[in-house]
Amino acid sequence: MTRSNDHDDSTPAPETTAATADAPPAEETPRVIDEAAWAEAHDGDAEDDDEPLHFGAVAPEDEAAGDDDESDDGEDEAAAAAGAALAARPDLEITLSADAEIPLSSIDEDALWVVKRLRAKGFEAYLTGGCVRDLLLGRQPKDFDVATAAHPNQVRAVFRNCRLVGRRFRLAHVFFQSGKVIETATFRANPTDTLEDLPEDLLVARDNVFGTVEEDARRRDLTINGLFYDPVAGKVLDFVNGRADLDARLIRTIGEPDIRFQEDPVRILRAIKFAARLGFAIEPATLAAMERHAGSLLRCAHARLQEEVLRLLASTYAHTSFDMCAQVGVTRVLLPELLEDLAVPTLRSAPVATTPTEGADVASEGADVAAPVETVAETTEATATTVSTAADRHPRFLALLDALDEVRRRDADITSALALAVLVTPIWEALSGTPGAFDAWWSRTADGFTERLRLTRHDRERVPQLLQAQLDLEPQRRRGHHARATVGRPSFREALLLLIIRLQAAKQPLDEVAAWKVVAAAHNQPYQQARYDRNRQRAAGRGAGGGGDRGRGGRGRDRDRGGRGRDRGNNGRRRGR
């Protein structure tokens, strides 16, 4: 989870000051560069003399091998033209302010170097989004992002250790030898702001409109995510009153909440995510709009919905997040199968708090709400089997989410299949005594998940495998060829982690887990759980959507990390290599 700032000791770190602060630019350049002008420049092979030696000159081999959908000859030519033009432009002298609202020691030095390098080439550039929010809250940012007036090919020309990613909106990933990635995005504007009259359907399908820094701030989702930081001037840029909401511990949309959620209903899930993560309250008007427009979530790209739901499950605040999802009406829209089978409370029985709290656990009228589904009670009637009531299963469900949060806080790597398996474990425990009962329930439920969230074939198959493996991990099966076969399965470590979660949820000792680790060691099989690697996830998964704290597109940081081959499709996952 911690992002490394260490550099190779054998090479110097980039400077953070320059000789002078007032050296005039060699030529006047517009604040937002006309990219077409660079396309007319001559080719050149000038080297970037200012690039520190300890930065990788290119992306890692497995990433730079070339995704056809992310790089083409036209972009290479445009980048070469931009590079030739930039090479002829003398660098400006840039001095970072020592009298700053945010101490330089709190900021990642590679992110500072990216900002300084762009500014030296004459482009506006600032730290942006979540890192600014977290620094102002006194929290350690998970990663650092940069926003700039430079267009993607111009960023690529400035940094040789850079790769362009993304389909809907091109982003630049600047790579470093530690595996760190600094995402650098061009300022954008809200496409609806360029229209004289608002369309009847406000859903934004494409938002490839370049803009200014203020337009970029106003097009984002929440006020607390619309902040920029200028390390050169040492000042926070706040066009949306985000600092006031940080001080008040409030989640509020930028602009009219009804319009913002119609433009992009996924912002409802993001508002829940940040309220749960930060312990903030949701501002009443924003909350009311979330309830009104929850049904519109089904209009969004299924891959984006899948990504946000899985992020909530593997976030360390799954319990709080899913309470809020149920209370706002999201569960009824996206996961209706769980409502009756787990007795999940709805908005009418458990309203969301709207007053600021520290770490608080804080129904839609949409026309697209999913139809009623067959419940466990109906399933068991068909099989003539008695199971526990939904009211009994709901406390178990909450205990499992608490255990999942605890495991994730210990930096365990939670795959999407494991997260989904935890979600349905109470149903499996209720039906496992009847042959075929859970398989029938899961088949129907997975169909619904696939329709609304684009459940992958791998996850659809792996979830029942992990649950069935819980029977193979019973004490009486810990001997002979059965034990050897169990620890030799590719899913053994995932299944063992699910057992840990189940035991912790039941407040039982983990002696059985230790015993299975001894068996695995005796058969030379791996048993240690993988650790979450944020740098790897950011490099692998951000290309498809971009946007992140900007509320448009997905950031692929919390995807299935089991190391198996995966298709990229529309959900931004890596291809199997």
Question: What does the model show?
Answer:
With 577 residues, the chain is an alpha+beta fold. It folds into 3 domains: 212 residues, Beta Polymerase, domain 2 (2-Layer Sandwich); 124 residues, cca-adding enzyme, domain 2; 147 residues, cca-adding enzyme, domain 2. Helices cover 42% and strands 6% of the residues. The chain has 24 helices and 9 strands. A 7-stranded mixed sheet has the order 3-4-5-2-1-6-7, with helices on both faces. Strands 8-9 form a two-stranded parallel sheet. A hairpin with a 5-residue loop joins strand 3 and strand 4. Helix 3 packs across helix 6. The radius of gyration is 25 Å and the shape is globular. The N terminus and C terminus are likely disordered.
Question: Which labels suit this protein?
Answer:
globular, 577 residues, 24 helices, disordered N terminus, seven-stranded mixed sheet, disordered C terminus, Beta Polymerase, domain 2, 3 domains, alpha+beta, cca-adding enzyme, domain 2, 42% helix, two-stranded parallel ribbon
